[in-house]
Design goal:
alpha+beta; Rossmann fold; five-stranded mixed beta sheet; four-stranded antiparallel beta sheet; 15 strands; 23% helix; 26% strand
């Protein structure tokens, strides 16, 4: 039976290391909700090594104890979603290079998959292969462009959500690269947000919009990133995408993992995480905006 990530029946509570709350163990807490948080300073640089007491958690504005806390380079399940619409032709090589740079800069134990989309959506790995950690296999999957057509971005996000049901890792990430707003999906932005929030997927959208592109929709990318705890990027030059993808991989590897006992009412609950440390002020924390509780 599939259990949503906010209701993990088993989670790995990290290998013992300085500052660890637990030695390596399997926790059987069906109501445990996991948060993955990035902390940055005033210049947007990642901040690592903060203690548990630097964090304050509020659920629906009510203080909530943090029962699991750790920062380590734990593996993730990651999907790479690549726009194949006709306008991507001149940007194809830069996008392939950038997506591959993300894979190479990620934890070697990560499991990954690739989704290509235009008005047609398909997985990049061979049929029967759900995930891979092989750089050569990812290179082939990323390079398998089929240029042409319109932009069904929301449909692609919904399709990319499905492999996470079989993910080996509790941390789930989507990297998306597109040069246009959605103009041909059956799904809506609301449906996409409901799906990724329910499964605790963090989305990092990169929008390489042309200056005169009327279909560009940075607001949708911003909403997706904000609601899932990711970050949106709008590079002015397509050549900047490579550096951005490497930066995203680095940020993912420096995240904090926090856990708390969740509700059992089937409702959506708002999350607010605050971080303060006298040696790093001011700080900003990035995590998802809420979680969907299990039903009693």
């Amino acid at each position: 039976m599939y259990i949503a990530p906010t209701l993990l029946s088993t989670i790995i509570a990290i290998a013992q290391s300085p500052g660890a709350e637990y030695p390596f163990a399997i926790r059987a807490d069906v109501n445990l909700v996991q948060l993955h948080a990035r902390v940055t300073d005033g210049g947007g640089r990642p901040v690592s090594g903060l203690p548990k007491d630097a964090f304050q958690l509020f659920i629906d504005n009510v203080p909530q104890p943090i029962t699991v806390f750790q920062q380590d380079d734990a593996p993730v399940t990651a999907g790479i979603i690549i726009d194949n619409s006709a306008s991507m032709g001149p940007k194809r090589q830069e996008v392939i290079s950038a997506a591959l740079a993300f894979a190479r800069a990620s934890n070697p134990l990560d499991e990954m998959f690739v989704v290509h989309f235009s008005d047609h959506i398909r997985f990049g790995l061979p049929e029967g292969t759900l995930f891979t950690g092989s750089i050569s296999a990812l290179e082939n999957a990323i390079a398998a462009f089929d240029l042409g057509g319109t932009t069904a971005f929301y449909d692609a996000l919904l399709l990319a959500e499905s492999p996470f049901h079989s993910a080996a890792h509790s941390r789930k990430v989507l990297l998306t690269i597109t040069d246009g707003g959605d103009n041909s999906s059956h799904a809506t932005l609301t449906e996409v947000l409901n799906a990724v929030r329910k499964d605790g997927v963090v989305v990092y959208p990169i929008g390489i919009f042309d200056q005169n592109d009327r279909d560009g929709n940075p607001q949708a990318l911003s909403t997706i990133a904000e609601q899932t705890g990711g970050e949106m990027f709008l590079p002015s030059e397509v050549t900047d995408v490579n550096k951005i993808c490497v930066s995203i991989a680095k940020e993912i590897r420096e995240e904090y993992t926090l856990g708390f006992p969740g509700a059992q009412d089937g409702q959506y609950h708002r999350i607010r995480l605050v971080v303060k440390d006298p040696q790093h002020s001011p700080l900003q924390v990035h995590t998802r905006a809420g979680y969907v509780a299990s039903k009693p």
